UniProtKB/TrEMBL annotation:
Required co-factors: Zn(2+)
Enzyme class name: oxidoreductase
Organism (species): Amycolatopsis suaedae
Catalysed reactions listed for this entry: L-methionyl-[protein] + [thioredoxin]-disulfide + H2O = L-methionyl-(R)-S-oxide-[protein] + [thioredoxin]-dithiol
UniProt-listed InterPro entries: Met_Sox_Rdtase_MsrB (IPR028427), Met_Sox_Rdtase_MsrB_dom (IPR002579), Mss4-like_sf (IPR011057)
GO MF annotations in UniProt: metal ion binding; peptide-methionine (R)-S-oxide reductase activity
GO aspect biological process, one term: protein repair
Official protein name in the record: peptide-methionine (R)-S-oxide reductase
TM annotation in the entry: none
SUPFAM superfamilies in the cross-refs: Mss4-like (SSF51316)
Pfam families hit by this protein: SelR (PF01641)
């Protein structure tokens, strides 16, 4: 995983520690910037109210009240719970320029953010996030 310029993670572990903590699929997405197959993630269609945390470190990332149906195959949110809970960096992989979304606490890969797609949301942004990078904590 490329380092994030100018930012130091608050949670630092060796890759060996991450491998012990995460399942192979979680490791491939969170630490190697992989992507789960569309329409296969556990939170793609979830409507449960609660908070979505980083599966690697437990940091709060998104809240269910910002989740919306984008029909893209991955959970979509129009804003993080706090702006510093995620980091954004340019991603030039796969022959295109995108904006990668990382956990602001441990710098694990979450997905990508897209703008200007015409969704009826307050921000006109779609944080397209891998389910495997999240853990939903339902509201009481």
């Amino acid at each position: 995983m490329k380092p994030v310029v100018g930012a130091t993670p608050k949670v630092v572990k060796s890759e060996q520690e991450w491998r012990r903590q995460l399942s192979p699929e979680e490791y491939a997405v969170l630490r190697e910037a992989g992507t789960e197959r569309p329409f296969t993630g556990e939170y793609t269609d979830t409507k449960t109210e609660g908070v979505y945390e980083c599966r690697a470190c437990g940091a709060e990332l998104f809240r269910s009240d910002t989740k919306f149906e984008s029909h893209c195959g991955w959970p979509s949110f129009y804003a993080p719970s706090e702006s510093d809970n995620v980091l954004l960096r340019e991603d030039r992989s796969m022959g295109m320029v995108r904006i990668e979304v990382l956990c602001g606490t441990c710098h694990s890969h979450l997905g990508h953010v897209f703008e200007g797609e015409g969704y009826p949301t307050p921000t006109d942004q779609r944080y397209c996030i891998n389910s495997v990078s999240l853990r939903l904590i339902p509201s009481p």
